[in-house]
């Protein structure tokens, strides 16, 4: 579920690493401090880790560097191919946030970067419930993604993108399911988590949700 953007990622896979490293003007600010963002997520993780929306495996690299045991879940075949090439030692399975083969090990941390916005708020609610059920006691969800303080802030960023003639970015912001912090906070609180947010750049926030 929530796979309507996967074709786009099959097409983007070969040039994705160039984009995150600032080659594309439109997305430079979205990916600003990319390496620090991945490191912040890896620093928040512990134990057995499941990573959703692995992409080309850049967060996987940071998690491995911390000596963590990682299982990757990725719906795009092209992205899986690249990630598996980079990380032949990691199990990277076909699946998504809501539908994936059972994870054999207990899960201490669910991590993800730049991916949770592919789910609608309703799907995010379902996913948060699954995370709570699947996590070990005191388990955590550590996600970094684009989100906004409120709808006015989101509209301001869309207007700014249009003013800069960043039509692809503006279209993304309008059509993908970027949530506001109050909405995400409510979703994770209702699922049973204590949740906090830290700003990483003008689009991306780090969200840490701990099982109470
Ligand atoms: C912008 S990329 C982020 C890749 C990587 N995590 C990073 O930080 O560079 C988004 C990734 O999420 C994946 N994705 C799309 N829909 C998804 C879903 N419903 N569940 C899990 N992953 C999804 C895409 O295939 C893509 O690999």
CATH topology: Rossmann fold
Q: At the first level of CATH, what is the class?
A: Alpha Beta
Largest sheet: 7 strands, mixed
Tell me which ligands are bound: S-adenosylmethionine
Order of helices and strands: HHHEHEHEEHEHHHEE
Structural class: alpha/beta
Strand order of the largest sheet: 3-2-1-4-5-7-6
Indicate the proportion of strand residues.
15-25%
> CATH superfamily name?
Vaccinia Virus protein VP39
Q: What Rg do the Cα atoms give?
A: 16 Å
Number of DSSP strand runs: 7
Number of helices: 9
Low-confidence stretches: none
Using brief descriptors, characterize the structure shown.
212 residues; alpha/beta; Rossmann fold; 7-stranded mixed sheet; globular; binds S-adenosylmethionine
Detailed description of the structure:
- The chain has a single domain (6-145, 177-211), classed as 3-Layer(aba) Sandwich (Rossmann fold).
- It is 42% helix and 22% strand.
- The chain has nine helices and seven strands, in the order αααβαβαββαβαααββ.
- It has a seven-stranded mixed β-sheet with strand order 3-2-1-4-5-7-6, sandwiched between helices.
- α3 (34-44) packs across α4 (58-65).
- The chain is globular and about 50 Å long.
- The mean pLDDT is 96.
- The structure holds S-adenosylmethionine.
- Residues 2-3, 5-6, 9, 20, 52-55, 58-59, 74-76, 79, 96-97, 113-115, 118-119 line the site of S-adenosylmethionine.
- S-adenosylmethionine (SAM) is lined by residues 2-3, 5-6, 9, 20, 52-55, 58-59, 74-76, 79, 96-97, 113-115, 118-119.
């Amino acid at each position: 579920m929530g796979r309507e953007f996967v074709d786009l990622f099959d097409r983007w896979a070969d040039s994705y690493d160039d984009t995150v490293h600032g080659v594309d003007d439109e997305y430079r600010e979205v990916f600003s401090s990319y390496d620090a963002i991945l490191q912040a997520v890896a620093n928040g993780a512990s134990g057995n880790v499941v990573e959703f929306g692995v992409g080309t495996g850049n967060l996987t690299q940071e998690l491995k560097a911390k000596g963590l045991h990682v299982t990757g879940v990725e719906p795009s075949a092209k992205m899986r191919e690249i990630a598996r090439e980079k990380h032949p030692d990691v199990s990277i399975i076909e699946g998504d946030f809501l539908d994936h083969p059972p994870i054999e090990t207990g899960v201490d941390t669910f991590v993800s970067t730049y991916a949770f916005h592919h789910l609608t708020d309703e799907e995010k609610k379902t996913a948060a419930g699954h995370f709570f059920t699947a996590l070990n006691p005191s388990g955590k969800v550590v996600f970094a993604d684009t989100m906004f303080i409120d709808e006015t802030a989101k509209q301001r960023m869309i207007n700014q993108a249009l003013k800069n003639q960043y039509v692809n970015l503006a279209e993304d912001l309008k059509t993908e399911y970027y949530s506001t912090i109050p909405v995400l906070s409510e979703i994770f609180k209702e699922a049973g988590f204590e949740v906090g947010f830290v700003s990483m750049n003008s689009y991306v926030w780090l969200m840490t949700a701990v099982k109470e």
